[in-house]
């Protein structure tokens, strides 16, 4: 995919400087303040990170060395020989210092039916759950899958694992039984923590049933712990299943804390790559936690007394770093949002902002576009004067959506922090600082501390200077960087570090404009970003070809008004299969069944053939253009084995919506 957008007009030239009010209270009140700290973080990384590690985190045993790395072999270590515990840093130290402060506000699917827990209660609940795990044989290093709705127990479960040194593997509760099974087996999980059912936007999601189906083929799973969300009747197998609440109530609210090594794995989180098999990205304890906490503090300008809300699901990295670990490590009050942006209506976010007095609000461009199209009335109806900072993550934010968010939601008062990062980076990598950075709508602006972005050409040479475009890479390691891929270190090295020696390769294209601002232009590999959910086209293709009628499939992204990118599938049928709505429905179902509803193709084109080179390689560039209804410059098609197929595909494309 071209790393550069087709037209330069996509890059807005307007600049929004921070307001005086914002500067007056921000941690970083000017660009000079940002630059001074940033420069130090890259010029003297060891001194900078040592200082941050000692001031932001509690240690049981001091580290002896700040970092050690070798990109060639993918060895990255931070804070060597230090011992600490993420749960202690996120819970215990706050329970003793600010025990009655609200830690979590659970915002239930039904507005107003949620509840809050303070740091002391959080500590008791996490300890009880940790004891339940220990009494079922879960020990340090064991893996535990978490397949949960956005309820308090989901956060207790993550922190309980961290407390005893177990490694959590959260699987988004929208994934199918098959996807869940693969993630449990790849990580060799000993237990699964789930709930009877989930509720989102008033709809019931049968989680326990999905777990039952998955676990049938998971020989390592000994126990399934079940929280109750709806209380509806569900299948229960007493030899394997454990009701979580009574088990927790039977435990003491104290639990010894494991002193883990800085480099012990905190969690695995599966994400999509350009091949069919999802990658179990491994994050370790100290570096990850420090990066999450420090970025939360600066990017959201977190101050005591704030009510901070990131509405991401804990099934994705954003939920890990900015619902749970970052804010709790900073002793913040963080919101856990169970619902969807349009339930009961498109004013849900702003009604919640008003009712809870939210100060920072962090969501995705998709959600912004989905509520913006319902009209400004839904925003204006609610008092948003508590808001100070607005955040965006997951995909490029188009300037129109940015401006709507800034003007309508933030009344022009609140800076929009467009944060670029990835599952593998652990925390925010490129983002404005709210009191310092003059904003440009659609640009993630400048790097976070310790992050050295570079723009590479296709041969992997650094392109110096401003006003340049290319591949976004990062020079040198940063603390929150992923350390490996579960069971496949080779893939880790080859995907991220070996394409061009000395750099971490992001897979994104970017432009560094005349003023040095970074603009992320989207993936340059076969990964698509649908509603901020990252998906490998190969995964969707593998799901499609399991349908007996599908001989071959090629999947690409295409521009979608709300989702950013939609999923477009070209399908070649086996002999004897007839094209028709029923078949299209079956093909879509195949994807829902294998991956999950969020991966359902938006459009399926039954193709007479695919544009292939004489050596049999599919020309995806052409497929992307046709899917995008961009028939202008298809490039040289004379090298195709059958150039007439292009005309046929264009004709068909014109007939489907
Ligand atoms: O393409 C970039 C896009 O999302 C990808 C990472 O996806 P994932 O690992 O699921 O993490 C999403 C949440 C951090 C990136 O490679 N992306 C993420 N944030 C932005 C973005 N693209 C443009 N602007 C962003 N702010």
What gyration radius follows from the Cα positions, in whole Å? Answer: 24 Å
Beta-sheet strand percentage? 15-25%
Q: Assign the structural class, choosing from mainly alpha, mainly beta, alpha/beta, alpha+beta, or little secondary structure.
A: alpha/beta
Largest sheet: 8 strands, mixed
Q: Based on Cα principal axes, name the global outline.
A: globular
Q: What count of helical segments does DSSP give? A: 20
Q: Mean pLDDT score, rounded?
A: 96
Bound ligands, named by name, code or SMILES = adenosine-5'-monophosphate-propyl ester
> Main sheet: which strands, in order across?
12-11-8-6-7-14-15-23
Q: How far apart are the first and last residues' alpha carbons, in Å?
A: 23 Å
Q: Name the helicity range.
A: 25-40%
- Unreliable runs: 1-9
How many DSSP E strands? 30
Pfam family, one: ACAS_N
Organism: Mesoterricola sediminis
Binding site for CoA: 200-203, 318, 531, 592
Protein name: Acetyl-coenzyme A synthetase
Keywords:
657 residues, alpha/beta, 32% helix, disordered N terminus, binds adenosine-5'-monophosphate-propyl ester, Acetyl-coenzyme A synthetase, ATP binding, AMP-bd_C_sf, ligase, metal-binding
Could you please describe the fold and organization of this structure?
The structure is a single chain. The chain has 657 residues and is an alpha/beta fold. Helix content is 32%, strand content 23%. The chain has 20 helices and 30 strands. Strand 29, helix 18 and strand 30 form a beta-alpha-beta unit. The radius of gyration is 24 Å and the shape is globular. Bound molecules: adenosine-5'-monophosphate-propyl ester. The site of adenosine-5'-monophosphate-propyl ester has 22 residues, from helix 11, strand 20, strand 24 and strand 25.
């Amino acid at each position: 995919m071209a790393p550069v957008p087709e037209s330069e007009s996509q890059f807005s030239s307007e600049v929004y400087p921070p307001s005086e009010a914002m500067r007056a209270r921000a941690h970083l009140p000017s660009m000079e303040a940002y630059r001074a700290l940033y420069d130090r973080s890259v010029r003297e990384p060891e001194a900078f990170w040592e200082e941050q590690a000692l001031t932001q985190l509690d240690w049981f045993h001091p580290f002896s060395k700040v970092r050690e790395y070798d990109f060639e072999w993918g060895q990255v270590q931070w804070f060597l020989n230090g011992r600490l515990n993420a749960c202690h840093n996120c819970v215990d130290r706050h329970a003793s210092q600010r025990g009655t402060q609200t830690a979590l506000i659970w915002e239930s699917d039904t507005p107003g039916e949620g509840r809050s827990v303070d740091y002391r209660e959080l500590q008791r609940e996490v300890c009880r759950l940790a004891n339940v795990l220990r009494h079922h044989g879960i020990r340090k290093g064991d893996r535990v899958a978490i397949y949960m709705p956005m309820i308090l127990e989901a956060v207790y479960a993550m922190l309980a694992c961290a407390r005893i040194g177990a490694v959590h593997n959260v699987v988004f509760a929208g994934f199918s039984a098959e996807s869940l099974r693969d993630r449990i087996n790849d990580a060799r999980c000993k237990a699964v923590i789930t709930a009877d059912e989930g509720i989102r936007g008033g709809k019931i999601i049968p989680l326990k049933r999905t777990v039952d189906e998955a676990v049938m083929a998971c020989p390592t799973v000994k126990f399934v712990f079940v929280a109750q969300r709806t209380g509806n009747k569900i299948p229960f197998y007493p030899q394997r299943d454990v009701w979580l609440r009574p088990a927790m109530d039977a435990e003491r609210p104290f639990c010894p804390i494991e002193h883990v090594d800085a480099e012990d794995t905190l969690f695995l989180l599966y994400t999509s790559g350009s091949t069919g098999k999802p990658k179990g990205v491994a994050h370790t304890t100290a570096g990850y936690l420090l990066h999450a906490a420090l970025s939360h503090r600066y990017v959201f300008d977190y101050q005591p007394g704030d009510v901070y809300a990131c509405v991401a699901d804990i099934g994705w990295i954003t939920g890990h770093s900015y619902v749970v670990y970052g804010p709790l490590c900073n002793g913040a009050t963080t919101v856990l949002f169970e619902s969807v942006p349009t339930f009961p209506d498109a004013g849900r976010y702003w009604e919640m902002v008003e009712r809870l007095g939210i100060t920072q609000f962090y969501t995705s461009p998709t959600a912004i576009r989905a509520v913006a199209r319902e009209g400004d009335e839904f925003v204006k109806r609610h008092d948003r004067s508590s808001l100070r900072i607005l955040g965006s993550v997951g995909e490029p934010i188009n300037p129109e959506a940015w401006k709507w968010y800034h003007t309508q939601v933030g009344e022009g008062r609140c800076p929009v922090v467009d944060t670029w990062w990835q599952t593998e980076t652990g925390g925010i990598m490129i983002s404005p600082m709210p009191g310092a950075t003059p904003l440009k709508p659609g640009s993630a602006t400048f790097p976070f501390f310790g992050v050295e972005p570079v723009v590479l050409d296709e041969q992997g040479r650094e392109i110096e200077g401003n006003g340049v475009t290319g591949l976004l890479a990062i020079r040198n390691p940063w603390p929150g960087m992923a350390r490996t891929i579960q069971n496949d270190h080779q893939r880790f090295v080859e995907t991220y570090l070996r394409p061009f020696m000395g750099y971490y390769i992001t897979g994104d294209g970017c432009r560094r404009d005349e003023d040095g601002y970074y603009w992320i232009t989207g993936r340059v590999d076969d990964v698509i970003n649908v509603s901020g959910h990252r998906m490998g086209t190969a995964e969707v293709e593998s799901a499609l070809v399991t349908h007996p009628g599908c001989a071959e499939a090629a999947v690409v992204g295409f521009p979608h008004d709300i989702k950013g990118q939609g999923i477009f599938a070209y399908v070649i049928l086996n002999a004897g299969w007839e094209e028709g709505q029923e078949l299209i429905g079956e093909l879509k179902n195949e994807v829902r069944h294998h991956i999950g509803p969020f991966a359902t193709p938006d459009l399926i084109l039954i193709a007479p053939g695919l544009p292939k080179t004489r050596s049999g390689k599919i020309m995806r560039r052409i497929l992307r253009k046709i899917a995008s209804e961009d028939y202008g410059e298809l490039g040289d098609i004379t090298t195709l084995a059958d150039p007439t197929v292009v005309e046929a595909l264009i004709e068909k494309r014109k007939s489907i919506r």
